[in-house]
Amino acid sequence: MKKQWLSLALGIVTATGGFLDAGTIATSGEAGAKFGLGLIWAVVVATIAVILMVEMVGRFTAVSQKTYADAIRENFGFKFYLLPLASEVIAESLLLTAEIGGIAIALSLFTGISWHYLFPVAAFLVWLMAWRAPFDLIENGPAILGLMTLSFIVGIAVLGGPSPQLLTTLWHPQIQNGSLANYLYLVAAILGATISPYLLYFYSSGALEENWSASSLLLNRVTAIVGMGFGSIGSMALVFLGAMVLQPLNMTSNTLGELGLAMAKPLGIAGSLLFAAVLFTTCLGAALEVVLGVSYNISQGFGWEWGEGKKPVEAARFNLVLTIFVIVAIIIGLLGIDPLQLALFASTIIALFLPISLSPFLILMNDPQYLGDKTNGRFTNIAVICILVMAFIVALVSLPLEIFSGGG
Amino acid sequence: MRKRNLAKSWNYGLTLLLPVLLIALTSCQFTQSAFAHTASNTGAGFAAASTMLSYMHQGKITYQYAASSFVNFRSELDGLDRQQLLSQQGAPDMRAVQHLFDLYKPAIQAVDSPCLSASCDWRGQVAALNKASEAFLQAGGS
């Protein structure tokens, strides 16, 4: 039991990597720098949605002992399963490249070496950890280091907190003439960056790796709320920092390094280095989740052996998939696209495919064959329908908005 | 009778015209012109470069942090083309664009070779970056 509660780390790492990643850092910083606190509501909506989805996918796996990918294939057939799989592979390969780029930029901020040279080093680190590191290390390492995110709150406190004038932008966003498209684009990007399907595949597979059962439901609920709540605090803190420091200086957070200046102002060198450390940790956690999430998804869908607890030779195809996926990310990375721009683009693409990945939820979560008496209640069903409607709207508007606003 | 018909047609016309006007009005406010977008981004980029340089000399960030960040500023700000800027939708006249380019030159030099040691004129570079930032932001309507 004690070990089970220690696995609360699963939630924190899922939040550290799944909630806070290059995409969220980019969108949060840009949101604060451009619109003050006027996009906090989008982070709150995304947080509620992701808490509900994570709780449901954890409950599903704990009770049915099946992962989300397993169930999609079993219930909807192999042909349908290929749809979410294809969308997942396209969107997550872009996101993985952005996360590896984020790690490279973080290393670059420490060393002064151009991130282009550090990109292969970062990719090797991700591959090595995904290939050989036990699940415990993947969970606990980023989870513990992810606590550094709390330094953002210290930064806000040292700055004296937001001014009353800034607080009014919470309910009265200041959208300048010609900025409406950019505002709506950031709403879509925040939702796309936060409600990432890889997070569900990773969490679902992680629950099985942790041997969760029907007795783990309370732990699952606490994990979803505490973990995602923790990630959300980090994201909101970045919006505050962007609004308090970058906006008055006319900066729009177009590069990841300049976002660290928001921490340098209140905490000096320690602040900027803490930002770089958080960037490193969150991007590493996210890169591992993305690469494992996709590898779990493919292996489970095709019925192959999978698991971080197994030696590579025992789950050869699972390890081959993760290796190929990292190579694909390196190839995309060779194009030299700025990771921040790539993260924003990947968030838009994820938003575009969101309904495909989330639609099976409504049926699976109401199937007593999988969940017995733990199926969704009326409230959770209404919530899922609301999330799906939101996902459809976001999917419809995300790409046109990206074009209209010039990608932020 | 003819008057009434005319009034009716006028009403129909207004009903049809109003949404068109609304759409036109909203689309005007919905997005920036291409020129305003480029100018705002360039201005914001120079503002960030200026703050980065100042913070480094004030001891708020390390040399390595600044050096790494300027690599990204370079790829963000380098290669602004005068002819391309002039041809963009919403661009001002030739003289205004030329003025922006006169400020762009010393600012981009500072971004390309930032003065990260105390031995060179970093304050001069900060001043050039600030001047260019203000002008571009103003041109972009920010």
Task: Walk me through the topology.
The complex is a heterodimer of chains A (408) and B (142).
Chain A: H1 2-6, H2 8-19, H3 22-35, H4 40-64, H5 68-76, H6 78-111, H7 115-132, H8 135-146, H9 151-158, H10 164-167, H11 180-194, H12 197-209, H13 217-246, H14 256-259, H15 261-302, H16 316-333, H17 339-358, H18 360-364, H19 368-371, H20 378-405
Chain B: H1 2-30, H2 34-57, H3 63-77, H4 82-87, H5 94-112, H6 122-139
Helix pairs in contact in B: 2-3, 2-6, 5-6
Structure write-up:
The complex is a heterodimer of chains A (408) and B (142). With 408 residues, chain A is mostly helical. Chain A has one domain: Amino acid/polyamine transporter I, CATH 1.20.1740.10. Chain A has 20 helices and no strands. Chain A has helices at residues 2-6, 8-19, 22-35, 40-64, 68-76, 78-111, 115-132, 135-146, 151-158, 164-167, 180-194, 197-209, 217-246, 256-259, 261-302, 316-333, 339-358, 360-364, 368-371, 378-405. In chain A, helix 3 (22-35) packs antiparallel against helix 11 (180-194), helix 6 packs antiparallel against helix 17 (339-358) and helix 7 runs antiparallel to helix 16 (316-333). Chain B is mainly alpha-helical. The longest helix of chain B has 29 residues, at 2-30. The chains are: A mainly alpha (408), B mainly alpha (142). At the A-B interface, helix 6, helix 11, helix 14 and helix 15 of A face helix 1, helix 2 and helix 3 of B.
Short description:
By secondary structure, chain A is mainly alpha-helical. Chain A has 20 helices and no strands. Chain B has one domain.
Task: Figure out the total of helices of chain B.
Answer: 6
Q: Kindly estimate the percentage of residues of chain B that lie in beta strands according to DSSP.
A: under 5%
List how many beta strands of chain A DSSP finds.
Answer: 0
Largest sheet of chain B: none
CATH superfamily of chain A: Amino acid/polyamine transporter I
The SSE order of chain A reads HHHHHHHHHHHHHHHHHHHH
The count of strands of chain B amounts to: 0
CATH architecture of chain A: Up-down Bundle
Low-confidence stretches of chain A: none
Order of helices and strands of chain B: HHHHHH
- As for the CATH topology of chain A, it is Amino acid/polyamine transporter I
Overall tally of domains of chain B: 1
Mean pLDDT of chain A, to the nearest integer, reads: 87
What is the end-to-end distance of chain B?
Answer: 54 Å
Total domains of chain A:
1
Give me the oligomer status. Answer: heterodimer
Name the helicity range of chain B: over 70%
Measured between the Cα atoms of the first and last residue of chain A, the distance is 47 Å
Helix content of chain A: over 70%
SS-based class of chain A: mainly alpha
